[in-house]
Amino acid sequence: MVELISAIVATLVGVIFALSTYERWLNKKKIHELAWASSLSMFAIAAFALALGAAGSWNHLLFKVFYLFGAILNVPFLALGTVYLQFGEKIGNKVAKVLVLLAFLVTGMMISAPFLAPLPLHHLAQGSKVFSVLPRLFAGVGSGVGATVVFVGAIASFFRTNTLRFKVSNALIAIGTAVTGASGLLNSLANAMTAFSITLVIGITIIYFGFIAATTAKVPAKVS
Predict the structure, then answer these.
(1) Backbone dihedral region for residue 125 (phi beyond 0: left; psi -120 to 50: alpha; all else: beta)
(2) Where is 22: in which H helix or E strand?
(3) CA pseudo-torsion sign 65, 17, 208, 152
(4) Does 224 fall in a domain?
(5) How far is it, in rounded angstroms, from Cα 159 to Cα 163?
(6) Confidence band of 224 (pLDDT split at 50, 70, 90)
């Protein structure tokens, strides 16, 4: 029951924050907010798959949806927002084209990826125990590189600006990214569904408020 409740909360938080960020993009047309909204939507989809698995039993389709959006794609799209803010639309658009192409390729790969072991029905499986090297490689590289881009961008902006609001926003984004990364680590090492859901909620909440602080400040500055 605790696993189900925490997964439902994670889903609701992801949906609310994704819709809020998408609305901000519609109002202001700032492309980095569209990247953030896409990433938060993926967090919500992964959390919803997690809730369905906790409510009943896991199946191959459900776990692939969870793994694709929760372990592979969400953090790279979060990092795309950082690229737009740090380097502008010209470079950001080039990165976005490559990322979208890779997203389609990875989706096709996940659809056809075989399971190497029986999928546990009543707890969250570890990708290392059910998938071959390729899906796990994409998950590791995507999450690792994406989180590094977000974290380094946030830290760089923290020291580059003298505005307290921007310092707080970048600190929140860096901390939130570290927390969401810890959620994946908990699953891969401890197979802890409840801890995964709780750290996911905490992480995206911190990141979201970092976004709000960054985009509502009156003093223009580059943040991530």
Answers:
(1) beta
(2) helix 2-28
(3) positive
(4) no
(5) 10
(6) very low
For residue 190, the domain's CATH number is 1.20.1070
Reduce the DSSP state of residue 66 to 3 states and report it. helix
The count of residues in the chain is 224
**Amino acid symbol at 102:** L
Tell me the pTM.
0.84
| DSSP output for 74-119 | HHHHHHHHHHHHHHHHHHHHHHHHHHHHHHHHHHHHHHHPPPSSPP
- How far is residue 218's CA from residue 36's CA, in Å, rounded to a whole number? 20
Which amino acid makes up residue 222? K
Number of domains in the chain: 1
* DSSP letter assigned to residue 195: H
Q: Which two tokens stand for residue 189?
A: 């090492």
